Amino acid sequence: MSSSDLGLDLPYRLSLVLDTAAVVLGGLGLGLLLKWLLFGLLRVYNRRPDAPLLTQSVARWLSAPSAWFLPVLALSFLLPLAPLGPKPFEVLRRVVESLLISTFAWGLVRTVNVVEDLVQEHYRLGEADNLRVRKLFTQLQFVRKLVVSLIVFLAVALILMSFATVRKIGTGLLTSAGIVSVIVGFAAQRSIGNLLAGFQIAFTQPIRLDDVLVVEGEWGRVEEITFTYVVLRIWDERRLVLPLNYFIEKPFQNWTRTTSQLLGTVFIYTDYTLPIDAVRQELQRLVAAHPLWDKRVCVLQVTDSKERTLELRILVSAANSSQAFDLRCDVRERLVGFIQQHYPECLPRTRTTVDAPAAPGFAVSSVAE
C-alpha cells in the first residue's frame, strides 16, 4: 500500500471508528434513559402510602441489574448499524452477547429475591404459632439456593458455548463422560451425599428454620440451612456448624417438631417433715398469676424418697422452650424462698442423736439423715 493510499484510508478508518462509537454510545445512552424513566416512575409510585410490596421490592432489587441490562439490550438492537467488517463486528457481537446473558442472569437472581420478599410478607416467621411457616421457609431457602445455582450455571454455559472452540471441547468431553462421572463420583461422594441429604431435609423436614434443637449437648435454634451444612445458633450467641448428613445419620432432639409447647421440670429436695399440700397450694397460686404459664399443666409430685430427702418434681407448661426455661427458674426460686420463709426446719438437714451414758463412761451413737 502506497503512502497516498494510506493517507486516503486513514480518514475512512477514523470515520468507521467514530460511527461505531456513536452506535455504541447511542445504544448505551438509550438504555440508561429507559432505565431512568422506568425506575423514576416506580420511585414516584412507591412514595404513595399504599404502595404495594411488589413495586417496592422491584425497585429495591432490580434497579442495579437494570442499569446494566437495559443499556446492553438497547445496544444489541442497534449493533447491526455499526459499520464494521465481519471480524471486528463478530468480536463486538460476542462481547455484547456475553454481557447481555450475564446481566440478564443477574436480573433473574435478583428476581428470586423479589419472590422471596413477597412470600415473607405473606407468611411471617415471627408469629407465635409458626410451624407451617417454618416448613415453607425451609423449603423456600433450599429451592432459592438451587434456582440461583442453576441460573449461574446456565448463564456461564451459554456464554462458553457461544464460542466454537468451547463447543468442540464440550463435545470431546461428552464422549468420555462415563469415565469422568465415575472419577467425579468417587472424589465427591461426601459432597453428593450432603446434597442429597439437603433434598431430604428440605422436603421430609426433620429440621426446619427456627426449630429448637439439642445437638451434641447444645441447645440452639436453626439459623441457616445450606446445600452442605446447617448453622445452629446456640443460646449464648455461639454458632454450631454441622454437616447435613449429621441430621440424617445421628439422633438429636427437636423440641419444635410438631408444636413449640413444652413442659418444664423443676426438682426440689426437702426434709421428710415438709407439708406437701402447702407447697402444692403455693405452686398453684404462683403459677396461676404468672404471665409465662399457658394454663395447661401445673403438677407437684413426690417422685422419690431418698435416704435423707424427699424429691419433689414440679411440672409446668409454657408456649415455647424459652418461656419454659424462664418459668422453671422463676418457680424454683419462689418455691425455695417460700420454704425458707415458712418452713425453714424442712430444708435438707443432718440429724445427730446422743444417748445418755449407761456407765461412768458414755457412748455416742449418731443417726444421719
Walkthrough of the structure:
The chain has 369 residues and is of the alpha+beta class. It folds into three domains: 1-122; 124-258, SH3 type barrels; 262-346, 2-Layer Sandwich (Alpha-Beta Plaits). Helices cover 59% and strands 14% of the residues. It is built from ten helices and eight strands. The protein has helices at 3-46, 53-78, 86-122, 131-161, 164-175, 177-187, 189-204, 246-249, 276-288, 321-342, and strands spanning 212-215, 218-225, 229-234, 239-243, 253-254, 262-270, 298-305, 310-318. The strands form two sheets. It has a five-stranded antiparallel beta sheet. It has a three-stranded antiparallel beta sheet with strand order 6-8-7, with helices on one face. Strand 3 and strand 4 (239-243) form a beta hairpin. Helix 4 (131-161) crosses helix 7 and helix 9 crosses helix 10 (321-342). The longest helix has 44 residues, at 3-46. It is elongated. Residues 1-8 and 362-369 have low confidence and may be disordered. Keywords: Membrane, Transmembrane, Transmembrane helix. The chain crosses the membrane at residues 20-46, 58-79, 142-163, 169-188. It is found in: Membrane. Pfam families: MS_channel_2nd.
How are the secondary structure elements laid out?
Blueprint lengths: L2 H44 L6 H26 L7 H37 L8 H31 L2 H12 L1 H11 L1 H16 L7 E4 L2 E8 L3 E6 L4 E5 L2 H4 L3 E2 L7 E9 L5 H13 L9 E8 L4 E9 L2 H22 L27
Antiparallel strand pairs: 1-2, 1-5, 2-3, 3-4, 6-8, 7-8
